[in-house]
Design brief:
Blueprint: E1 9-12, H1 21-28, E2 36-38, H2 48-56, E3 62-67, H3 75-80, H4 86-91, H5 97-111, E4 116-122, H6 131-147, E5 151-157, H7 169-180, E6 187-193, H8 200-206, H9 210-217, E7 221-225, H10 233-236, H11 239-245, H12 251-260, E8 267-270, H13 275-284, H14 292-304
Parallel strand pairs: 1-2, 1-8, 2-3, 3-4, 4-5, 5-6, 6-7, 7-8
Helix pairs in contact: 1-2, 5-6, 6-7, 8-9, 11-12, 12-13
């Protein structure tokens, strides 16, 4: 995010309705400079990527996907290919080198792309055994994908890994350095929930600490997921809170603008099935960013409730 404008909008596909995918991608692709779609092989019961592929054809939109979870219906296929053991398939999550390579190939095939823009190691805190060992194996495979010309960069997507202490940005940097054999690795992004409900990372960022600030110091992208907390912020936020943020905006618009104004956040992911939801959100992010002092006041109000 620059000081002049909030972070741009990207299309998330975790909660999007399958019939709405094509039109949602068309809306996301309207501005080639900021167009981005985020997905994963396990989204929409394993159907998200194949549903996305026709809409992505010949469109200038970058795509991020993920590796880690064993998508519905793929366990047996991965076992047959030698990418998973039966116990790994039963666990439902795996970041071994061989599975990451196999899942990257599956992602490319399902999305209809020969090269992926970004692959996130998905919830590495869910991996069996030591998360650091899992990360090192995953990063090693992803560095090999970059060298093979099938991947631009990679990152880590988590729900609560930074909050529960399983993950830290400095340690991710160390693991990537080990995987690449030098400090010139291709770990370039983190994805984590940022909202006025899941506000820990936002609060830390305002004090120039925590994962968002640490990622920004390294020049990494920060993808804010679940900015409206699965739509629940419409019920949890108040009109008084909106008045603090930007009086002329609706409650969801104001909450979204607050997240997009967080220092260090470079993209906000929104699962918007309806065109009105998308365009209202995009209009909110065309507003000037919320000043840090105002964000602090909003968080203080929330903490006192």
């Amino acid at each position: 995010m620059t000081s002049e404008s909030p972070a741009p909008l990207g299309l998330g596909t975790y909660r999007i309705r399958p019939p709405a995918i094509r039109e949602a991608v068309l809306r996301a692709a309207e501005d080639p400079k900021t167009a981005w779609v985020d997905t994963a092989p396990n989204y929409l019961a394993g159907r998200a990527q194949t549903l996305l592929a026709p809409a992505l054809t010949d469109r200038m939109v970058k795509v991020s996907t993920k590796v880690g979870f064993v998508a519905q219906g793929t366990g047996t296929m991965a076992i047959t290919a030698g990418a998973l053991s039966a116990s790994e398939a039963a666990h439902g999550h795996c970041l071994t080198t061989r599975f990451v390579h196999w899942q990257c190939a599956q992602n490319r095939a399902q999305l209809g792309r020969s090269r992926l823009n970004m692959v996130f190691a998905h919830n590495p805190e869910r991996a069996a055994g030591d998360p650091n060992e899992a990360l090192l194996r995953a990063f090693t495979a992803l560095e090999e994908q970059v060298r093979a010309g099938t991947l631009d960069a990679y990152g880590v997507a988590t729900w609560d890994g930074f909050d529960n202490g399983a993950l830290s940005v400095p340690n991710l940097d160390r693991m990537a350095t080990l995987a690449a054999g030098s400090e010139y690795h291709h770990l370039r992004a983190v994805q984590l929930p940022v909202s006025l409900v899941t506000a820990n990372a936002l609060t830390q960022a305002l004090d120039n600490r925590g994962p968002i600030a640490q990622a920004a110091e390294r020049g990494w992208d920060v993808f804010a997921s679940a900015p409206l907390f699965g739509g629940e912020l419409n019920e949890l936020a108040t009109r008084e809170l909106t008045e603090l943020i930007r009086p002329d905006l609706s409650i969801p618009q104001a909450c979204l603008l607050a997240v997009a104004s967080c220092p260090g956040v470079t993209r906000v992911l929104l699962s918007a099935s309806e065109s009105a939801h998308w365009y209202d959100s995009r209009a909110a992010l065309a507003e000037p960013p919320v000043p840090v002092a105002t964000l602090r006041k909003v968080l203080d109000v929330l903490a006192s409730d």
